[in-house]
């Protein structure tokens, strides 16, 4: 699916997103992008942009900032697989790709950010529609794009989140 938002063109692929063919996030099969970044550890490849949590990078005027995922049970951080989220700023727009499997304990560093597009994964191994709608309420993006494998999850998220943002289903 292609989504145009101002000067930004997002190509939504099976697991991730291609942003203006500059940066791909969680795209495993595409070679179009100049840089690839991933929310979960993968075997190293030549074009992977390695960003540690809280690290920043810039490529051709597109800025990327990594955020660690610290999943919670109640208000306590839990362990689990190391994952990351990314805030991408390009051509005056900001895109937040939420790579966490759950709602993080805190969203430090994102409180004052204007988020134009929120992209998040919903499903059995990712956020539930309810958790995803809570993230929307907190971040208040202009547009939310859930990546779902089960249409029912996407529809439930849309129904919960639509009072707070526009939702584009990519199912």
Structure commentary:
The chain has helices at residues 129-139, 151-161, and strands spanning 2-5, 8-12, 17-19, 23-25, 35-37, 56-59, 62-68, 72-73, 76-77, 84-90, 93-98, 117-122, 143-148, 166-167. The protein is mostly beta strands and 171 residues long. The strands form three sheets. It has a seven-stranded mixed beta sheet with strand order 6-7-10-11-12-13-14. A five-stranded mixed beta sheet has the order 1-2-3-4-5, with no helix packed on it. The protein has a two-stranded antiparallel sheet with strand order 8-9. α1 (129-139) packs parallel to α2.
Quickly list its features.
single chain; 171 residues; mainly beta; 7-stranded mixed beta sheet; 5-stranded mixed beta sheet; 2 helices; 14 strands; 13% helix; 35% strand
């Amino acid at each position: 699916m292609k989504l145009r938002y101002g000067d930004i063109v997002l190509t939504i692929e099976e697991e991730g997103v291609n942003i203006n063919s500059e940066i791909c996030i969680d795209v495993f099969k595409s070679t179009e992008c100049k840089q690839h970044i991933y929310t979960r550890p993968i075997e190293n490849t030549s074009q992977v942009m390695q960003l540690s949590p809280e690290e920043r990078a810039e490529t051709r005027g597109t800025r990327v900032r990594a955020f660690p995922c610290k999943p919670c049970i109640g208000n306590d951080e839990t362990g689990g697989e190391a994952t990351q989220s990314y805030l991408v700023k390009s051509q005056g727009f900001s895109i937040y790709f939420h790579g966490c499997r759950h709602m993080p304990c805190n969203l430090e560093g994102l409180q004052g950010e204007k988020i134009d597009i929120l992209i998040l994964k919903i499903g059995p191994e990712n956020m539930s529609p309810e958790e995803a709608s809570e993230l929307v309420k907190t971040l208040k993006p202009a547009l939310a794009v859930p990546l779902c494998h089960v249409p029912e999850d996407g529809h439930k998220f849309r129904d919960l989140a639509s009072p707070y943002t526009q939702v584009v289903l990519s199912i």
